[in-house]
Amino acid sequence: MNELTIDYKAEILKLKKELNAVILAHFYQVPEIQDIADFVGDSLDLSRKAKATDADVIVFAGVHFMGETAKILNPNKKVLLPDLEAGCSLADSCPPNLFKSFREEHPDHIAITYINCTAAVKALSDIICTSSNAEKIVNQIPKDQKIIFAPDRNLGGYLVRKTGREMLLWDGSCIVHEAFNEEKISRLKSLNPGAKVIAHPECEEMLLDKADYIGSTSALLKYIQTDDAQCYIVATEIGIFHQMKKLVPGKKLIPAPPKETPECEGCFNCRFMKLNTMEKLYLCMKNQSPEILIPENVRINALKPIERMLEMS
Ligand code: 13P
Ligand code: SF4
Q1: Does residue 14 contact residue 261 with C-beta atoms inside 8 Å?
Q2: DSSP code, position 238
Q3: Which CATH number describes the domain made up of 182-268?
Q4: ∠33-34-40 over CA atoms, to 5°?
Q5: How many CA atoms lie within 13 A of 53 on its CB side?
């Protein structure tokens, strides 16, 4: 069997049985991977699934911090990631040594940290959040408690405006969600009467100001099913269109235009998420590698703020 003749779908399904594996995929994965996964979800639901699974092997079709979260929750299971290079600009923006110093400079602040960060940064945090539960978590913190929010300045800024809480924001951002152009979006909206702009809170404030609805990937998917508009301009990573088209086949869905040229290929495609392919998914299951491994002291410290998140969501 050479690589050209491999039926990846059939082989992956066979390996899944042999390994007693579960395949978890994020909404930003390529359609073939979403379709073969046992569960497709947002960061919060994927963490919940990772915690609940009784499979022996978790195959994480997502980015590195997601695989790490699954491993933190399941130290005795093997967690495989198709490509270890599948990182995240938000996680990269927050090196643990700098985050540690920042925390030491502000000893009276607790740290609520977005799940898009490394295990080492989680280990230095008090509570983890995702875009689905961040507002709910911030609202549960006593009013007199000072808060650091890291690493996404855009999600952090959105939370400050939504909750009215002052927070010290880390200066990180998502390369995909900062690539949209709000003026082009307004023009597109006027060309499509009745269209609504829906956006992920990782987008910049100027764009969020133009949005009719702001939410996590799963919230956006729910919204387009219950809302009665027939056309949406969607400001998040393009992979989500696969589920959107399945859920509302009759509605018009337009990707939000990027800041640069219209053919700007990388703009609404997360280059980290798209490192995963069917071939790499198959190979990682066949070789049982690459595997996510985390030093036990880091894992134990990172588990506490994740468990707090799960309790508070
Ligand atoms: P959610 O799916 O949790 O909304 O997160 C989006 C994201 O950028 C994941 O990398
Ligand atoms: Fe990170 Fe942005 Fe890619 Fe999500 S879309 S993995 S936040 S770079």
Answers
A1: no
A2: G
A3: 3.40.50.10800
A4: 135
A5: 28
Q: Is 24 helix (H, G, I), strand (E, B) or coil?
A: strand
| Burial of 10 (C-beta count, 10 Å sphere; 0-12/13-18/19+) | exposed
Contact 199, 235 (CB under 8 A): yes
Query: Which residue has the CA at smallest separation from atom 7 of ligand 1?
Result: 43
Q: List the CATH code of the domain at 3-87+273-293.
A: 3.40.50.10800
| CA distance linking residue 288 with residue 100, whole number of Å | 34
CA of 24 relative to ligand 2 center, distance in Å: 17
Residue 78 contacts residue 288 (beta carbons within 8 Å): yes
Among protein residues, the one with the nearest Cα to ligand 1's atom 10 is: 116
Residue type, 25: A
Q: Give the residue carrying structure tokens 């980015």.
A: 63
d(C-alpha 181, C-alpha 284), whole Å? 37
Domain(s) of CATH 3.40.50.10800: residues in the chain: 3-87+273-293, 90-175+301-312, 182-268
Distance in Å, CA 240 to ligand 2 centroid: 13
Find the 42 Cα to ligand 1 centroid distance in Å.
Answer: 6
Residue nearest to atom 5 of ligand 2 (CA): 270
Q: Which CATH code is given to the segment(s) 90-175+301-312?
A: 3.40.50.10800
Rounded to the nearest integer, the mean pLDDT of the chain is 96
Note the pLDDT tens digit of each residue in 178-225.
999 999 999 999 999 999 999 999 999 999 999 999 999 999 999 999
SS3 per-residue string spanning 178-214: CCECHHHHHHHHHHCCCCEEEECCCCCHHHHCCCCEE
Which of 155-169, 207-221, 243-257, 265-279 shows the lowest mean pLDDT across its residues? 265-279
